[in-house]
Amino acid sequence: MPIILSLLVFYSCGSRNIYQEISIDNMKRVTEIMSSDSFAGRKPFTIGEKKSVEFLENELKSIGFEPLFGDSYFQKVPMIQTTSVAISPALIAKGAQKIFTYDVPNDFALSSPRRDEIIELKNSPIIFCGFGIDAPELGWNDFEGIDVKGKTIVVLINDPGLYTKDKNLFKGEEMTYFGRWTYKYEEAARKGADAVLIIHEEKGAGYGFNVPRNSAITSRLSIDDPNLPLGCKVTGWINAITAEKLFSSIGKNV
Question: Beta strands of 42-163 (E only): which ranges?
Answer without folding.
Answer: 75-76, 79-82, 91-94, 99-102, 108-111, 126-128, 134-135, 140-141, 152-156
